[in-house]
Amino acid sequence: MIYESAQLTITRLEGDIAELNFDLQGESVNKFDNATVTSLTAGLDALEAENGIKGLLVTSGKPVFIVGADITEFTSLFGASKDDIKPFTGTNNKNFNRIAGLPYPSAVAINGFAMGGGLEVCLACDFRVMSTAAKIGLPETKLGILPGWGGTVRLPRIIGVDEAVMWMATGADKRPDDALKAGAVDAVAAPDQLRDVTLATLQNAIDGNLDYAERRARKHGPLPLNDTEAMMSFFTIKSMVAQQAGKNYPAPIKVVDVIEQARSMSLEDALDVEADGFAELATTPVASALVGVFLNDQLLGKKAKGWEKQADKKIEQAAVLGAGIMGGGIAYQSALKGTPIKMKDINQDGLDLGLSEANKLLAKRVARGRMTPDQMGDILNSIDPTLTYAGFEDVDIVVEAVVENPKVKHAVLAETEKHIDKDAVLASNTSTISITYLAEALERPENFCGMHFFNPVHAMPLVEVIRGEKTSDAAIARTVAYANKMGKKAVVVNDCPGFLVNRVLFPYFGGFNMLLRDGADFQAIDKVMERWGWPMGPAYLMDVVGIDTGVHAANVMAEGFPDRMQPDFKSATEVMFELDRYGQKNGKGFYEYVEDKRGKPKKTVNEDVYNMIADVVGERTEFDKEDIIMRMMLPMAIEMARCVEEDIVGTPAEADLALLYGVGFPPFRGGIFRWMDTVGLDAIKAASEKFAHLGKAYELTDRMNEMLANGETYY
């Protein structure tokens, strides 16, 4: 044994080959935390002192290689200066440079995930062999930063600038075939052959059959571009990256800047440019927000796994009541992820629509090469359309997705309960109706909960799992386990009108309606909120949600929270509803929609809409964009604060992710609580006082005032 620690070992193998094996004790994955970085430094000291070594084999003792840096340690850098942050990358850069400069060749066996710093240590090695079950990537731009351990320097010199920029700017995982084609790895091997193939590759280099010196020279020298080529190449790349990333995400374009600035430099100077770029990005609120989203997602996943462990029975057979678009989407997602599902409707037309939805989604996967026709057939065969309850006695969970009408749901749920096992879970996909109220129709309310999917089911990650007054932990646990199996992000919430997402979304729409009442232009509002970061403005979003659905939900909210959600005026949204303008679903709402060549609804403006709403809106007025933002966001933020204070949702982290995954809250802002922390509760208070005349929806809670007085933040 050359070196041994709780993070890694270095062993002398037969043939004078040293094996550096990463195996972080007490953890399920390897990561470059501070302890591992320190151990690697000490291990390399021992390795360099060892005589007669001819080659280095780098391996992992985990099912994955290395997932990257320990992000939890990185958060301590936020709020620091650029000069304070820059040394963060220094120690491990020295480690990787030492590996790259060993007086003998190195080869790495990449099993599982090699992400971020995990891939960067591979790039420092001379040869890379990848398992057919592995994935590699540099996802740092998804966290608002850039690779800081040589990724921006070595990867372009290995696979070329254009390809390297795309890898880093998108942060996408790369499969073995793509990595081999790009030249990022030298060979691909089956998992059981990975070690042997990597050792054979290393031995070939030791024997002089593979030239590792030339590879090192390429990684240490300038990029092979003359000034003219570089000017043209970087101009094109910058334009493309800027267009795709948008102005709110600075990291992708900074990657290009760093590569361009360092293109003619030596390795050491280029690494210094990279460290500057890393430190500059790490000081931005975008990095803080995106790292926060990552950590919140880990927390949410941990909570969901915790619920899954409590599940006393596996969900092996599911059913959905009500076919159509929503039922078909649920059936598709369940079958796609391996849980057979019965799809029941009261008429054949509904079943045909549900099957058509599933077939359409599967056909797209086949067309994109993500599945074979045979696989598509197997999945479709696991969706069992039926007009009866035959076989429901064998179902483990039933998701009711019929029309959003309390009387209809009561009848359907009560009827269904008679046909299922007394231990089966019954869940409702209701978006607004109280779970406690719906449970009144049931003999076994402890087995009943809400399972609220967001439309379109296949695309929206969030599922709200709603606990009624009598819902048991067992029902919640099984439902969360089913959501996990479907590949969804489950947030467990307590029952109230609108639950979590709709409860806070409709105060946002309330702010929109008041702006229109006071003379704002709905197109201007949409533009401001889209520039602020929403994927679509409130008028467009209401069209997509469905104005009929929106009016129904707004009435539920008004009844539940009359002090702040009951308007004292007729809104433009209500006028749209009365004129049968329901949005995208019937081609006309605030905007009008016609299908483009790909069959997708294209938004157009009909100036007649302004005449339609003229009686309920004020004289056209141009509002300050900051006033528009605060009038829209304050009611949502304050209502979400109430939800946390009332224990509707467990933590600000879960609340923030629910809005990100449920309605597309701008990720670069981190969530509604992260946004409030960023702008400061003093600014929120000032805006609240400015718009106090608009009603209680703009009034801070007592707890928010207490936090402001004590200097507290949500994170």
What does this structure look like?
- It catalyses: a (3S)-3-hydroxyacyl-CoA + NAD(+) = a 3-oxoacyl-CoA + NADH + H(+).
- Residues 318-496 form the 3-hydroxyacyl-CoA dehydrogenase NAD binding domain.
- InterPro entries: 3-OHacyl-CoA_DH_CS (IPR006180), 3-OHacyl-CoA_DH_NAD-bd (IPR006176), 3HC_DH_C (IPR006108), 6-PGluconate_DH-like_C_sf (IPR008927), ClpP/crotonase-like_dom_sf (IPR029045), Enoyl-CoA_hydra/iso (IPR001753), FA_oxidation_alpha_subunit (IPR050136), FadB (IPR012799).
- Pathway: Lipid metabolism; fatty acid beta-oxidation.
- The protein is α/β, with parallel strands linked by helices.
- The protein folds into 3 domains: 3-283, 2-enoyl-CoA Hydratase, Chain A, domain 1; 314-495, NAD(P)-binding Rossmann-like Domain (Rossmann fold, 3-Layer(aba) Sandwich), CATH 3.40.50.720; 502-581 and 612-710, Orthogonal Bundle (N-(1-d-carboxylethyl)-l-norvaline Dehydrogenase, domain 2), CATH 1.10.1040.
- 50% of the residues lie in helices and 12% in strands.
- The chain has an 8-stranded mixed beta sheet, sandwiched between helices. A 7-stranded mixed beta sheet has the order 1-2-3-4-5-7-9, sandwiched between helices.
- Helix 1 links the parallel strand 3 (17-22) and strand 4 (55-60).
| Oligomer type | single chain
- What does the average pLDDT come to? 95
Please name the CATH topology of the largest domain. Answer: 2-enoyl-CoA Hydratase, Chain A, domain 1
Number of domains: 3
Provide the β-strand percentage band. 5-15%
